[in-house]
Amino acid sequence: MNPHRRHPLIFSSAMLVYVFLYAPIVVLILFSFNASRTNITFEGFIPKYSERVVMEGSMVKSSPCGPFHWFCELSKNKEVAEAAGNTLKIAFTSTIISTIVGTMAALALQRYDFKWKPFSQISLYIPIVIPEIVMGIGILTLFTQLFGIINNSLGLTGDSRLSLGLGTVILSHIAFSIPFVTLVVQARLQGFDKSFEEAAMDLGANEWITFRRVTLPTILPGILSGALLAFTLSLDDFVITFFTNGPGSTTLPIYVYGLLRRIITPQVNALSTVWILLVFSVVLLLQWVQSREQKQH
Amino acid sequence: MLKRLRENKSAQGALLVSPTMLWMVGLLIIPLLLTLVISFGKRGPDGDVIYTFTLDNYIRLMGYSKDCANGQASCFDPLYVQILGRSLSLAFNTTVLVILLAYPLAYFIARAHPKRRNTFMFLVLIPLWTNFVIRVYAWMMLLRTQGVINLILGWFASLLHISFTPLEMLYTPGAVLVGMVYEFLPFMILPIYTSLEKIDASLYEAAADLGANGIKTFARVTLPLSMPGVVAGTILVFIPVMGTFIVSDILGGRQVILVGNLIQRQFLDARDPTFGSAASLILMIMTLIVTYFYTRKFGFGEEIVVA
Known about the structure:
The complex is a heterodimer. Chain A is an all-alpha fold. Helices cover 70% and strands 1% of the residues of chain A. Chain A has a two-stranded antiparallel ribbon. The relative contact order of chain A is 0.13. The two termini of chain B are 42 Å apart. In chain B, β1 and β2 form a beta hairpin. Helices cover 73% and strands 1% of the residues of chain B. By secondary structure, chain B is mostly helical. The chains are: A mainly alpha, B mainly alpha.
């Protein structure tokens, strides 16, 4: 029996699911070349070459950017640039902190015995078993109540008042990322052969050198995939950010959601297309690096 | 003191875990407790919280109001109970549909040539990494009256010379269901694939040697061994669907209101955090009860971490 044989029914249903997964994405990309500015119907592609400029009525007559009109508009959009900047700032900061903190916790939970261990382990499952909106409004309530007390008791006014912003978003993103990092690193540590560490110690390495030269390289793939997970969770997060952001900390998902209340131009599609291409190239790059590593071993 | 710490393994462990616990307690456990406290409070004049102890918010959620005490005949308003029920049944339907769609694909990938498995899996992950809000928005373009699906259907109809009136799909419960299934499908494919891939190929050979045909092998070997993946996927799909408000907000318009929408509006539009807190507590309790009974029956999904 060939284990890789394809049952035609399985094959065709799998292909249909792929079509389902990609149909909206294809439409998104297609609409970013839409000649209509309302984005409700597709009115053909933007004409290729021309020097005459921009919009007349609801159609893009011609544009210096040709079919890439909406991409040009996007590049001029300051709000998008700011939102993209915030998204990356938040993602980088929260990934770095949650990776370090989460890895420390994974080591503690896997290697040490201490009083609160069962409680610590269970608390990591909270973000998985509780709907995100519950966490979001809980954190919002905490910050507003806390800031209210602090602002009133210290008599802070104007700009010095504590308020929601980049800081609160980053703190919240770290909170929901840590459990994922910890659980991934813990899974990696479970398969770790302790005798390697013992051998290093026998050869005279102290604890720090053993950790740096033996333990860390072994669990590094786990740490990296935990970090990647934290990064994508932060980039993609809508709910927690929605409740914890303030003026000046709008992220791309929040910006797009805000746009949905108005008439949207295909700029949003151009934005999505750039986003998809970026993610796609990062994924391809990672896969390439991974396959090279596998060949070396 | 440093020397004592060096020898005290227990203190080292506690020290390593302490930053994590700072976040878990500070930003998860305390907020949850605060939500509980506030849900028994009263709304102040500016949408602030007056800390008292009253069950009003919960009584209102169950469909009764204070006026009921005056002996009115029709004081029961099932609005909020209906919202809770609608969320529960939508989450249930979504989960079942997602399992039905995810299983064949996961099975297909797990049985594909090992060299191609990663590529097939990446194809599942790429839509997931396209932002959640953008993906929901894309469905708007598909489902609209002048949208892509109607365009294609109309085109087919004109080929066959049939008259065609565009279907009204956007802002219906069906649209919300499609959006939910789309959003959470990858979260089911991943764990099912992981558990299918773990199955030892020799088990299939053994089944074949013992005379089992394809269907029997699937029912007696493959399906039971992939159950941990299905359980993990169900947890990863059911819980977020219960709380999501974007899909119903964008694809359901004002027609389909779920618990998530109710909570969001209490906090941002109605400015009644106490009622919103009560609703989110009920949401949490409902999901925990369902998850508890489900996992007690099938076991906690061990594939969650891998996903």
